[in-house]
Specification:
The structure is a homodimer.
Chain A lengths: L2 H8 L3 E6 L6 H6 L10 E6 L2 E6 L4 H4 L5 E4 L3 H11 L5 E4 L6 H11 L3 E4 L1 H9 L3 H20 L10 H14 L4 E2 L4 E4 L20 E6 L1 E3 L2 E2 L2 E7 L4 H20 L6 H13 L12 E2 L9 E3 L12 E4 L2 E4 L3 E4 L2 E6 L2 E4 L10 E2 L1
Parallel strand pairs in A: 1-5, 3-4, 5-6, 12-20
Antiparallel strand pairs in A: 1-2, 2-3, 7-10, 8-9, 9-12, 10-11, 13-14, 15-18, 16-17, 18-19
Helix pairs in contact in A: 9-10
């Protein structure tokens, strides 16, 4: 979308995104400065003349790699004057109330004075949900990296190794394939730790019979992937197999439901209904999926807590799980690009058979 | 510090930290839930009864690993009631205006109604600057990981390799030593790319005569280290040597100045004065250092832009650099624990001679 269209749709004369200490990812959304630079303390300003980046000399070289007008300030006073000048003619200023701290908002009001401030948080979220070609390509690349890595992980799994050692290998293999960062702190959970959905990794050593749950993703040019696979080290017990194939069934059911126009809420409800109809009643303690993009939890996805009519070109995760505290858990997660008449699965690591690592 | 002392010093009856989508690291500061869990959407509430964590069932197991009272909500309505109840008797509510979005603030006001809200952003920053024993220990461990990795990196450097391949090795070696994440996206810059202080890494291939600049850190139990070393691949030219030893001299001068009571501003001024007295006048385009802790840029450190009287138990980076656009740059960075009468250097990777990798 071009600058004018953003302003029209949000009904404002200018949009200001401040990339403060807690980084507002929308800075990257509007500037598309995806290929280098940190831009702490920088501003992205959308006016009818286009997108302007107000940044420090430190970021000058990085900023000039994009297609925006680059304005350099040498100190705080100059920064304030430049921002003021850039939106001189604007009356209605769109801000992201969901990414701007109270402190930074007060600072902006001090600089700009008497303007009409409009919260465009929801509007930006709507825009960000629909991925354009560049975004689709970057997420697909991030998903490719994660898929390749998931597929080779069983080769690195050895008895007695620690969770964080496998996390090290995960990171290495992702970076080697061009990831610029982890999408998030990898979860590598052995045995009973796999029952804790938000476990990270520790020094638990791998034993025969353990579940090995890996949940990780690659960040590629600021866009993320997010994948989970669960293996068994050694021979799987019947209950482990039941857990795995129940989750797989639930996941495939959910993926098959996905297409434009479907309510994400219905998907989560159906997944839970299915799991609750098995011996694993009430063992799925989170939603089926979330939106994915610049943020790993980009927007609401598939959750019974909220309506979310899926639209073409959204990306959502599908990740049912079953957790038995003290014993273990299974989760299988893929990233889905929503198409008009179905799901395009971006992550393609093997999952159809429970892998027993010998 | 205990809960009562925080409330006294901030002159409030309760402190509420909301760990929203953009994570407010103060959640970890108050709860010390450093050993697992994500806690998105969770609240930390400090009252005279202690610290309470209000979180979802998804985080229950992780939350119970700490020393706080854990309160579980099953849905949004319950969450609101629980927060309300927890601070029922409080009149003055301390909030972090520097970490709370406008949206979340409005939400809190909707829940709690007519209270007196006090911005304790600066207060928290003051507290966080002074590291207690646990924090010191964790940063020291993070620094140890980074130092070990910096020292072995020359062994992995080969002609023709790409920057991101070296970044992969950096990550692997840090995770293998127990880092749970990168402190930040590693900078691996070859040749002319080293002149860009905030470059990340790309597919530039290593050639004879290139600078190799690596700037990276480990996150260990949520605390960070941050180190930079610069090598030359092949034989260094005279100008490369001059750049290196000028930076080293500036860095050692800065480190020698550090102790309780010194103004960080003076340190930065002296470093710039020194560099400007050499052939590299005006080639240092950033401040000498920043505070380090839960955040990589934790607080103001050594910058001529602002007074900062150093106190015992602060951690600051010292990282002068010289950059020649199109040619290359040198930066040397270490993490310093401020002691009463000097600097304790936490990162100990070799630096006294410019390493020429053959």
């Amino acid at each position: 979308m071009n600058a004018k269209r953003y302003l029209e749709e949000a009904d404002v004369d200018a949009i200001i995104i401040y990339n403060g200490q807690s980084i507002d990812l929308n800075f990257y959304y509007f500037t598309r400065l995806l290929y280098g630079g940190i831009f702490e303390g920088s501003f992205a300003v959308v006016t009818d003349e286009g997108v302007k980046v107000i940044t420090s000399p430190l970021e000058e070289q990085s900023a000039k790699k994009g297609n925006n007008e680059v304005i350099i300030y040498r100190n705080k006073v100059e920064r304030e004057e430049l921002i003021k000048k850039t939106i001189e003619k604007a009356e209605r200023i769109g801000l992201n109330y969901g990414g701007l701290t109270i402190k930074d908002f007060e600072n902006i009001k001090d600089i700009l004075g008497n303007k009409v401030y409009v919260d465009i948080y929801e509007k930006i979220l709507q825009w960000r949900m629909i991925k354009d070609e560049e975004e689709y390509r970057l997420i697909k690349e991030a998903a490719k990296i994660a898929s390749e890595v998931a597929d080779i992980m069983p080769d690195f799994i050895r008895e007695g190794m620690k969770e964080y050692e496998l996390a090290a290998r995960l990171a290495y293999e992702m970076f080697k394939r061009g990831a610029e960062d982890l999408a998030f702190t990898s979860i590598v959970a052995f045995g009973e730790n796999s029952a804790e959905p938000h476990y990270i990794s520790g020094s638990r050593k791998l034993k025969k019979g353990d579940f090995v749950l890996i949940d990780f993703g690659a960040k590629y040019k600021h866009y993320n992937s997010d994948i989970t696979r669960t293996f068994v080290f050694g021979r799987a017990t019947q209950i482990q197999k039941d857990m795995y194939y129940t989750v797989l069934e639930a996941q495939e059911m959910a993926i098959n439901m996905i297409k434009e126009g479907v309510n994400g809420k219905e998907v989560d409800i159906r997944v839970k209904e299915y799991i609750n109809s098995t011996q694993f009643k009430d063992r799925m303690i989170h939603s089926t999926g979330h939106g994915l993009g610049l943020a790993v939890h980009d927007h609401i996805g598939l959750t019974s807590l909220k309506d979310m009519i899926l639209k073409e070109r959204m990306v959502v995760t599908v990740e049912p799980g079953i957790y038995i505290p003290g014993k273990g858990g299974v989760r299988i997660e893929d990233d889905i690009f929503v198409r008009k008449d179905g799901a395009e699965i971006l992550t393609y690591a093997k999952k159809s058979e429970l892998i027993e690592i010998s």
